[in-house]
Amino acid sequence: MKSVRGVVVGAGVVGLSTAVCIAENLPLCSVTLLSEKFSPDTTSDGAAGIVLAAEFPDILLERQRRWFKDSFDNLLAIAQSQHSPDAGVILSSGWQIFKEVPTNRKPFWSDFVTGFRTMTDGELKRFPDHKFGQAFTTVKCECSTYLPWLEERFRKAGGQVEQRKVNSLQELSDSFDFIVNCSGLGSKQLVGDASVYPVRGQVLKVDAPWLTHFIRDGDGKTYIYPGIHSVTIGGTRQEGDWRLHVDKGDTDGILDRCSRLEPSLKKANVLSEWVGLRPSRRNPRVEREWLQLQGRMVPVVHNYGHGGWGVTIAWGTALDALELVRQCLKEMPQQAKL
């Protein structure tokens, strides 16, 4: 008999990863996943899904390294297993190139990806506007396949799934003993976090099966990521922009910039265009608190604000959230007596 009832709010890559971690590791918990949107309608579904990272300013680097390593190792194990095609997780090799030599030539995550090295002058010749580059093999996650695979894994672990909009944490307090908030941009309203903001991203899927290596400009605004069924090219990073419609000017800019890096893209047919809003914050919020809801104290674990790095660190922050839930469960009897 499951004795503790928990709920995870949000079914993007962070919410699903967190729900799976809790359901698989805490068998005494009955876990429900609640979300207004599920795949293929989440922000994560449009993510390019390549695993590399930026540095968050106010989080200990050691913690960020752990998030990256835990996530990378988890996805690498899937990519190298029989589950790779069903999960949509593959290895991807390529180059990250810079117009100016970056201050940090060896980012904190370089030890965890495979074969990280500085590009040779010969390799850089094809990118005359760029002075420096890094070559490595990482993991690419096709979220439109990965999210349903995670959801199935969650159900197999005994998880329940319910599609509905959660307007307030108050409405969950009667039914659940703990709440895990993975609502991304929704946290602006759900928990009143004014520091969450959208960063608009527009990408195209093109048919270019001859491309096998990724190319990413270090500024994060131009990238070419070959996947299983198509190549994702982008992009935009428009802070505070809530527009969800496709912008023709952005499409033309993406095609122009990407074709300069990879001229053969001029021969590629555009299959689709997509816009999503990255749930951004100065730093991701991965912490717990006790809130008074409907007259009783309820533990709430937050795991949101990953911006464009959701796929990259989702599993690492999910393991942190799992540990925070464990701490809450230890304190729960004591709270119940108050």
Provide an overview of this structure.
Keywords: FAD, Flavoprotein, Oxidoreductase, Peroxisome. Belongs to the DAMOX/DASOX family. This is D-aspartate oxidase. It is an enzyme of class 1 (oxidoreductase). The chain is α/β, with parallel strands linked by helices. 30% of the residues lie in helices and 30% in strands. The protein has 8 helices and 15 strands. Strands 3, 4, 5, 8, 9, 10, 11, 12 and 13 form a 9-stranded mixed β-sheet that branches. Strand 14 and strand 15 (296-304) form a beta hairpin. Helix 1 (13-25) packs across helix 8 (310-337). Residues 334-338 have low confidence and may be disordered.
Summed over residues and divided by their number, the pLDDT gives a mean of 96
- Main β sheet profile: 9 strands, mixed
Distance between the amino and carboxyl termini: 26 Å
Strand content: 25-35%
Rg (C-alpha, Å) = 20 Å
Uncertain segments? 334-338
Count helical runs: 8
Percent helix, as a range, is 25-40%
Helices and strands, in N-to-C order? EHEHHEEHEHEEHEEEEEHEEEH
What would the principal axes of the Cα set say about the shape? globular
Q: Work out the number of β strands.
A: 15
Please give the oligomerization state of what you see. Answer: single chain
Structural class: alpha/beta
